[in-house]
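Problem statement: downstream parser choked on a complex file, so we are re-checking the raw output for the NAP run. The parser issue turned out to be on our end (a line-ending mismatch), but while we're here, posting the original submission so the record is complete.
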Amino acid sequence: MILSLIAAISENGVIGRDGGLPWRLRDDMRWFKETTLGHPIIMGRRTYESNGGPLSGRANIVVSRTLDAHTAGIEVARSLGNAISLAKNHLQSPSGEVFVIGGAGMYEEAMPRCERMCLTRVHATVEGDTRFPDVDWARWRLVREEPHLADEHNEFAFSICVYERKGSGT
Ligand SMILES: NC(=O)c1ccc[n+]([C@@H]2O[C@H](COP(=O)([O-])OP(=O)(O)OC[C@H]3O[C@@H](n4cnc5c(N)ncnc54)[C@H](OP(=O)(O)O)[C@@H]3O)[C@@H](O)[C@H]2O)c1
């Protein structure tokens, strides 16, 4: 199994504001959907609530100590380790990919276990209340970078960057 993390981050490290995203980036939403579709996704309870419900076409695993274990459309895990175990049941092959999609605490806890990070670098400085954790960049290799311009559907320019853990052999 490959554990990956996917996030959009401003130049000053912000990922969220008032329970939502601090920008409108249609093409980044498309990239997120394309990349995660068909794969199990793991998220914290507040990210699940900000999505307004389960995301279609993906097994939604929500980490929470408070959510009802029988909430429709999702599986509830009580820890990240529990979530990863549940995600494995949904993989088509043992080498399948599972995505951690936020928020801040989930990213911080998952990062040491991840082999890949799909980071959208939003080329803007924005106000916010939720931040991406610090990254030890010496451990990561940039394997893909795709710039996108701002336009009427994308509030800011951004770059899709994919990093792989050095020495992971992937
Ligand atoms: N830019 C991006 O890529 C991106 C991605 C995702 C989210 N976001 C933004 O980030 C914000 C939400 O993120 P957040 O960091 O505030 O919250 P979050 O991580 O989504 O959710 C936090 C909740 O998850 C549960 N949780 C977290 N770690 C846990 C653990 N180890 N064991 C058990 N439960 C655990 C707890 O739920 P209980 O309280 O129910 O126990 C906790 O209150 C929103 O603004 C959202 O839009 C941005």
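For whoever reads this later: Residues 2-165 form a domain with the Dihydrofolate Reductase, subunit A fold (CATH 3.40.430.10).
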